[in-house]
Every structure is written in C-alpha cells, then in structure tokens.
Fold:
Amino acid sequence: MELKRYLFPLRKWWWLVMASTLVAAFFSYLYILRQPNIYRTHTTLMIGTAISDPNPSSNEFALSQQLAAAYANIANRQMIRDATMNALALDGLPEYVARAVPNTQLIEIAVTDVDPQRAQAVANGLAAQLVLMSPISAQPEDQGRQEFINQRLNILEQQINQTEEEIKKLQEDLGNMISAQQIDATQTQIASLQSKLSTMQENYGILLANTQQGAINSLTLIEPAALPSSPIGPRRGMTVLLAAALGLILAVVEAYLLEYLDDTLKSADDVARLFPVPIIGHIFEQKNGKDKHFLYHKSDLRHPSAEAFRVLRTNIEFAELDQPLKTILVTSADVGDGKTSVATNLALFVAQRNKKVVLLDADLRRPNIHKYFNLPNERGLTDLFLSNAAIGDVLRVRDDRKLAVLTAGDTPPNPTELLDSDKMDHLLSVLKEVADYVIIDSPPFFVADSMTLASKVDGVLLVVRPGHTRQPLAQITMEQIKLVGARLVGVVLNRIPIRDADYYAGRSYVYTYSINRGLTARNNNFPFDLTRLTKTLSPYADKVARSFKQFIEAVIKLSPK
Structure:
C-alpha cells in the first residue's frame, strides 16, 4: 500500500508526465533540425628528435614532455590565434583545443567547425604558427647561416670519411711491415690521423647542434590535418532523448509538487486520520461520467455501484445494533461531493429490503432530489412550515410504491430558522412513527442548516469525495459534529475513480466481481425461466405492495399540528 501511495501522483498526473515528455522531445527535435553539421579534424606535432635516436636518454624524453606542455599552452593563447587569423585572412577562429598527449612529446591540435575546409586550414595554420614560434625555424634571416652550416657539415662529413679510410689503409699496411723505422713512422702517421679525425668529429657535433636535426627544442609536423568527410554532430538522437528525459524528470517533480500542494483527502488513510469512524461505503464513479441525477433501477442491479449501495445498506443495518437509526442525515464536508446522489440511491436500496422509507430534501438552499425523480418542486417541505399544508399534499410516492419523497419546495428567506423550529421536530417524530427510515439530504456541513439538523437525527452519514473534498473543510466538519453532539455513523467514499479504485478503496473486489458476473449473465442470455420466476415472486410482491399501501395511507392522513 505504501508503494501505491508513492506511485499515486504519477498515476493521477500521467497525462501531464506524458505531455511534458512529448513536448520536450518534439521541440528539441525541431531545434536540432535547424542546427548545421559539425566537423572535426586534428594535426599532430612532435618535440625534438628523441624518437628517432637509437639510444635516447631519459632526460631527453622528460625535457621533451615539458616542452610539449609549454607549446600546447602557447598554442591556446591569443598571439597564436592572431597570427593564424592574419595568415589565413580570417576574422575569427572556430573552436579548437591544443593539448600535450600525456607521457609523450606529442602535441595535438583539434579544430571543430561547421565548415570542413576551414577546420582543416585552421588546424594546419595553427601548427605552422607554432612551428614558427620554436627557436629553430626557417626564419628568412637565418637561412644563410643554416646553409653555411649545412655546407660545412657536408665537407666535414667527407673529410671524416676520407680520414677514416686512410687510417684503415695504414693499419692494414702496418701488418706487412718489417722495418722498425717504417713501423714507427706509420704508427706516428696513424696517431696524427686519429687526432685529426677526433677534431673533425668534435667540430661536426658542434655544427650539428646548431641545426634542427640535432636540437631537442624543435617542432616537427608529423601528421597534418586531413579534410573531415563525416560530421561528428549534432547528435540528434541523443539530444532528443536527453530533452525527453529532462521533460520527464520535470513533469515527475511537478506531479509530486502538485500532489503535495493539493489539500484534498486522497485516500482512505487520510479519512481515517480525520474521522474516528469507519468507512462504510465505497461508491465508484460512472464510466461515462454521468453520476449526476443517476438512479440504479432494476436494470442496473448488476452495476458495481449498485452492489456498493447494497454494502452500504448492510453496514448501516449493522450500525443499528448499538443504537437505532431511524433518522439518518446525509451530508458532506464540501460542495460537489455527491451527497444527494448517495442519499437518493441509499433510500432506493433500503426500500428494496421491504422497509418503509421517506426521503426528505432538507437542502432548502440548493434542492436537487426532485431532479432525480423528475418531480416538480413548487410545493414541498417549506409549504409545511409556511403554508401549513398537509403532508398528503406535498408527499409524493414513487410509481413502484416503495419510497415516499418529500421535496424541498421554494427556497425560503430563513431556512435555518425553519429547520430549527418545533414544526421540524414534530415532522421528524411523525415520520419516525410511520416509517422505518427517514433519510434526509442536507447542505454541506459548513452550512448552519446541517448543524441544526444533525442535532435532531439519530445518525449522520458523511459523504467524502476522494481527490475533491478539502482536508480543512473535513477537519472543520468533524469538529462541528462533535460540537453539536451528533452521532457520526460512518463515512462514504463517493465517486471513486475506477482506475484508482485499488488506491482509494483497496483492490476493487466488488467492482471486479460485479463486472464479471454481469458479463457472464449477458453471455448466457439469462438462461432462466422468467415466467416461472415471476410467478414464484408474485406472492411476495403482493405482500410488499399491501404493506407499503398501508404505510402510504397512514402518511396521507397525517398533518402537522
């Protein structure tokens, strides 16, 4: 039950949750359709030449990684942006990110743009400007010096190779020499060539260090930006899904917020917390929504609400075990709870138990009982008070002669005073003598008329409409009932939505059973001998008719003193 209580706001506001989700998804889809495709490309640069060195040192790698982080930081600064815009003749650059690849001497520049050609050009332009920022670059003023160094390197390389060849040849000749003087001269010559070779190699290393080939602080473009062929976004499906999820979350929050702000009685637990009496009736809402002025005739006896009224009738009979209930006031805490419908149908079902029932419309401000029976309301209860009319003139008997109805009549200027008069007391005492039950329909209990009547009757039946009756009014009603000293017999939950029956009234066994039973009877086409059944019931019907005829004749003879 607790889980159902927590899930009830979602069931109640399911249309709001669904509508919010669909609206969010629809408008996000319309928005994302107007967004252009997004393309991304990247270029990669490398610091130094340690990767091509067969014996690199750890210091070179560590220094290269530090330089990579520094160059990546420089690439994200305004001077590189301005240089790239000037080189490409652009007013602005698209979004890009330059970062050092972790634990490597690589720098990656990724550019995102709606134009794939521009993204490629910007990525390569940023890389070119970053290379120009390095100390060893092809600057125009350094080209002459670099050419001279390269020439000297080529000469030294040839000389080193020649010297190495000469040393090798002399060492081969040394093995064939016999003369000590010749051997000594050759060894001297070899030593001189080795000294010369060492000097040339040292000079070669110095010159090489001044070129890009031997520099650690140098940038090399190893992967130029390619032209992107397929877009990376926008991710339309994911965007719509996220928007729908956001709309769903907001709608769920709104549903629980609305339920929190709703001050109506929503469940049987709410009713039990306010009223110290049991719930003795659960009346379900009509499927077609036509609860107003609806009576459950013989053709409707299989209706779930008909069974609910039979249960209500039985519960009232059990309530009489402690104290008689001949006069029952049917009222409500709020307007629109359906008290008149409960009073009218309860009177009909009580009358079906061979009981003499008078249905009295004491709602002199907004009478409605006459509308249920299609009766005129020109004369009624007020005429007994104001015109001293006889009961026989205003009391109307149903065609089936099982129920007497006393309508309200014209609205008087002082309804509370009339209902609190001695004539009302006398009328109730007279009706109690000739009827088994007097069921009175009264205004909602926040009206003084109901409080006046509640002190005159044997019991009060309070009608509550789940999801409609407000808790403050219900609480005030309970306090007023205690104040006037009235006996509250029980509470009737009226117009319970069928789809929420398991929440308001537990599992709707009565509803399910009645529906299945009705379907079975219809499917079997009532395989009963109706003629035989009618003959069997005729004696009982005649007996009931005679009894009620005597009751009606006694009522007609009565008049207020």
